[in-house]
Specification:
The structure is a homodimer. By secondary structure, chain A is α/β, with parallel strands linked by helices. The first copy, chain A, has 2 domains: 3-218 and 425-443, Aldehyde Dehydrogenase, Chain A, domain 1, CATH 3.40.605; 224-408, 3-Layer(aba) Sandwich (Aldehyde Dehydrogenase, Chain A, domain 2). Chain A has helices at 3-19, 22-38, 40-56, 61-67, 71-86, 124-136, 150-166, 180-187, 202-210, 234-246, 262-278, 287-299, 303-312, 362-372, 385-394, 452-456; strands at 94-101, 104-112, 115-119, 140-144, 174-176, 195-198, 224-228, 255-261, 282-285, 353-359, 377-381, 399-404, 421-423, 431-433, 439-450, 465-466. In chain A, helix 10 (234-246) links the parallel strand 7 (224-228) and strand 8.
Chain lengths: 469, 469
């Protein structure tokens, strides 16, 4: 069958999946976990094939790590499924209950979205996580994983699909597509697919958005900011900043830009620069930032030498020999390349580089973030409640923080159990997307013969009485 | 200034509008209402200009009625603003409150969407309603109304904008564009506009969707169904059906298709056909439906004659002379043109025509609706609780009803105070869209120095404790 035929069939069974009870869906997850455990050798064997092929193709070691599916990854997956089973059923929740008139009662109830297409990176654990999230939320899913883990994916998908059907879900509730050409066919199925979730690079997400009429839940760059306010506790600010920049530089929730209130820049910046340099972070910034650092270095005890050692030395303070490979923070200020102009602040480094700029107020910080950021996650460091409140109100991002690392923006860390991605779109789901983002709602109205003509003529009136939920 | 420049400015002030208190926004609404009242003669005068131009252009009387803005329309608008003021503030609602760990507290709070572009039909009252909904929900709005009411719109917009600014909202929080070419410019502003709401024909909504990267909240056809179950109370079914079909045929929530359980077709269909015919409704349907009606007519007392009178006569039972102009339900069954094939059931008539088909079960009814309908509003007429429950679970529509007219699908009738439209999209907002559909949310996380490294290393653990909302 073609992708289109399969997806049309899936659309037909999706209401049956949607109305399957939470018990059946949890049973499918239990059976899936048991099958993964039971067939682990088969999974590992398939994964060894994938890894051998990847080795031949000379795939980078960092990527190889993601392709690998071993006992540890399996244990993580099983723990994830267990936690998913224990989470509350996201469907069937009544979010509005209103008597419109005698014997005419309106309810708004959460329901699965229906048919979701998910295109994800080459990580076998992602297949397990995503298919289980869809089962738990009553959705049908079309899954397209990275081709580098095709063998592992095939085994994993077969086990999970079989478990779902054994639990009583209808055939065709899950579908795996593997050829890249099948994605293009999937993109044309806007009459059957309710939502696409592409995970991958910005360019890839943009490509999907530009080539389909299906709604896309995507993410754009993660250009996150940490703003150190005039009233910041510097003892908090520096470790937060180091975590936000260095804990996992490739993550979209890593801080890319440091904003500092001008009133504390002379004292805070040199301290922060020294510690960031120790952590291997290279700074870029405006001319003004460069000047402050140059002056601070000149004023400090043994001037140039102490700065270079702080900047380039390892954590134990010993001086590295070669200033050329070291960070750019030198007594003379930034190198010319690291002096930033306006548009440079739109850059997502995903690396040990941090942009720095000074501002005069919370309002200016928020304006910079709203203009140059990606509405993902931004933080203020301050002891001032009023400043924090204004910052959190003015910054137009999915997550706005006070006094903690931007790296907290994540479905697991928010207690959602799992996430399908982080949305920087403002509609439907925003920020880390867990089960709640995989449901929509419908209105149910139960009457006893009411007709609109009676209300239009004034014979009857609505009285709108909210009932208990 | 160009549309792009204006919209960029609007994007900059939108966080200020978003963080303006509910008090300021209600004050803007109060001032707007007062200004409309005070300047009513100016508004009516502008409207007379529009009407004169429309008359010259020989605009259809039905459309003229919509263009008119008189004392009655003004009173409706003022009542609408009053009710909007009394509605709860849709922003600032905490929908999740969770302690992730000691001193690390997550909140999810509703916030305005930001900048919304709304393109609406030539109805001056729509401008008032839409701009006031946006003010109430803390959104900035770009408004483009129909050119037929340009003069009225200009006066109304000026008064409302002035009221907003006098209340303290920033300049540039509202914008009116009037040239059609400006729409195309607006469609390119995907970096500044968060949502587009086009109101109008399907073709127009589709055009907008195909020419912008801005998310669009649109609606497709309203192909609504009423299913008369085996266990239906026929005394309820017929008036409901007549209301659903005839109360306002041009509305998207009018019933276009009648589905009848085969077990009751022989008794129910002839009765329904007779009453529908009295109400001026022309039937179309499958061959089987035609046969049932033909036989019923043949069996009835004075055969052909009584049928024709029932079908074509006015409400008082008198026989009209000319069968040619009457509905097609004749003793010989449907005319050939009215025998329906599969794909005919996708037709939105917006007229006194009703498609009819028989089904064998609730499941078959739901499958027909999911396949041929537009996921808008569908109803079951039944006394059987189990059948109703299955129907409401299986039908994948924004609104699913039992024992009442599909015409109830409307923001006012749901008690939302006002609506910006009815969404047949499944994401973000579904069904009638009131203030709730004009907000999104953001996550606020307040910490006391927490860094992710401590949780990654196992030094600290999340404990996820939900707090009171």
């Amino acid at each position: 069958m073609s992708v289109r035929e399969n997806v049309r069939k899936m659309k037909e069974v999706s209401p049956i999946v949607a109305s399957a009870g939470a018990g059946m869906r949890n049973e499918a997850l239990r059976l899936a976990a048991a099958a993964l455990r039971e067939h682990q050798e088969e999974i590992f064997e398939a994964n060894r094939e994938d890894l051998a092929r990847a080795q031949e193709a000379q795939i980078a070691p960092a990527v190889m790590k993601r392709l690998k599916f071993d006992g540890h990854k399996l244990a993580d997956c099983l723990a994830g499924i267990d936690s998913l089973i224990s989470l509350e059923n996201p469907t069937g929740k009544v979010t509005l209950h209103r008597q419109l008139d005698e014997g005419l009662v309106l309810k708004r109830v959460t329901v699965p979205i229906g048919v979701i297409g998910i295109i994800f990176e080459a990580r076998p654990d992602a297949l397990v996580q995503i298919s289980c999230l869809c089962i738990k939320s009553g959705n049908c899913a079309v899954l397209k994983g990275g081709k580098e883990t095709a063998s592992t994916n095939k085994v994993l998908f077969g086990l999970i699909e079989d478990a779902a059907i054994r639990a009583g879900l209808p055939k065709g509730c899950l579908l795996q597509v593997s050829a890249h050409s099948e994605i293009d066919e999937l993109l044309t199925c806007d009459d059957c697919v309710d939502l696409l979730i592409p995970r991958g690079s910005n360019a890839f997400v943009r490509y999907i958005m530009d080539h389909t009429r299906i709604p896309v839940m995507g993410h754009s760059d993660g250009i996150c900011h940490t703003y150190v306010d005039q009233a910041a506790d510097c003892a908090l600010a520096i470790p937060i900043l180091i975590d936000a920049k260095t804990q996992y530089t490739a993550a979209c929730n890593s801080t890319e830009t440091l904003l500092v209130h001008r009133a504390i820049a002379d004292t805070f910046l040199p301290k922060a620069a020294r510690e960031l340099a120790k952590a291997g972070v290279k700074l870029r910034g405006t001319m003004e930032v460069s000047e402050i650092l140059r002056k601070a270095a000149a004023l400090s005890g043994d001037t140039a030498k102490s700065w270079i050692s702080a900047v380039q030395g390892p954590a134990d303070g010993s001086v590295s020999g070669n200033p050329v490979n070291g960070p750019v923070l030198v007594p003379g200020g930034f190198a010319a390349d690291d002096i930033m102009g306006e548009d440079d602040f739109r850059k997502e480094y995903l690396d040990l580089i941090l942009s720095v700029r000074l501002v005069d107020s919370v309002e200016e910080a928020a304006a910079h973030i709203n203009r140059f950021g990606s509405h993902h996650t931004d933080c203020i460091i301050t002891k001032d409640d009023d400043a924090a409140q204004r910052f959190m109100a003015l910054v137009d991002s999915a997550s706005v923080y006070r006094n903690c690392s931007t790296r907290f923006a994540d479905g697991f860390r928010y207690g959602f159990g799992a996430e399908v991605g982080i949305s920087t779109s403002k509609l439907h789901a925003r920020g880390p997307v867990g089960l709640d983002g995989l449901v929509t709602y419908k209105y149910l109205l139960e009457g006893s013969g009411q007709i609109v003509a009676d209300y239009a003529s004034g014979k009857k009136q609505f009285h709108f009485r909210n009932l208990e939920i």
